[in-house]
Design a protein that fits this description.
This protein has one domain: MFS general substrate transporter like domains (Growth Hormone, Chain: A). The chain has 15 helices and no strands. The protein is 84% helix and 0% strand. The longest helix has 35 residues. It has 387 residues and is mostly helical. Helix 5 runs antiparallel to helix 14.
Length: 387
Amino acid sequence: MYRLVYLAYMLMVASAGVTFVFLEDIESDYGISPWGIGLISALSFFTAVIAALAIAPYGDRGHLRTLGCLSFATAIAGNVWIGFATELWSISISRGLAGLGAGVFSVVGRKALIGTDTDDGGETIGGFISAAVAGFIAGPALGAQLSEWGGIETPYLVLAALLLIITVPTLRWLGSIEVATDEHTSISEMIPLLKEPGVRAAVAVQIGLFFNIGVFDATVDEYLTDLGVSNAQVGLILIIIASPLLVIPRLAGRFVDNAERPARLMLAGFALFVPIVLTLGVWNGVAVFIGFAFAQTALESTLFPTTARVVLNETGAERSAIGTGLVDAAGSLAASVSAFVAPVVYDAAGGPRGSFGMSASVGFALLCYGWWSVRQRDLTKSAVAAT
């Protein structure tokens, strides 16, 4: 029954993927400005921030079925509404509801899958990430195909119906499982976690990864459309690009679960990631873009479970929801900001060179901060050992 958690999260994330393949159509058909497209792109990330901050403590208290009910209700309502929305305010609110549902379920699903210990936490969260990516890459393909048959609203209605079908069995399972809990967990406990250098480095890397995801998601449809790519082809390209995220995260998580210094591995991977982001905007061409974007997602596949492992080493199972919630909130906030800004930068600063150049610059600054944080920790440990 635990596979229902993977399926539910996959379907919730798929609605985000559906929307991204329609951004160019929404901009042209409904006369929405670039900042409006940025707002639509950003809202699902921003509502995930709210979910991670507000809901995570209740996850650690064990209220999984109640939170699951909230998640399904908002995700289904958001998908039904967005299919028929035609104005900026209605598209934004409905997309925000869908994002809130996915954000709440991210907290619920991780807590449920980790259960009572974090020994295999990296592998477990790696599998959860793969389920999310499966939804994200299936979304554009589903949207492109079903919209040809029944209009833009069809893929959203199909996703809402599938979520409705699995709601009851998923909630029943969430209410029956055993998880490690902490009845006194609150949002305020996230702040002390940031005193740990490893956690700060993980948050920095997560911000860098999701800042680029926001840029990528908000501009990739326009970029590929400018290169003459159709909606159906955009969906296929996204499937190719995201395919490493279907397989690698679980394997990388299994590896990092046994690593002695996961923070060092995390920063080394991020050091490779940043220059690849820069190259995405340097050379125009569909084949070149696919190649570098494929390499980028391969590195993301290793970095997501690694950041989770670094944080879980500090929180244990009892506080895993607020630990992963902290990282998710930081990443989602970064993605919401970059998704809002990226379409404007894309139009005003040379297209992909401006948007991905901005992303790489932010990533380099965060990489330096992460290395500094881990270096300070190592120096402190050396000083303690010497005394």
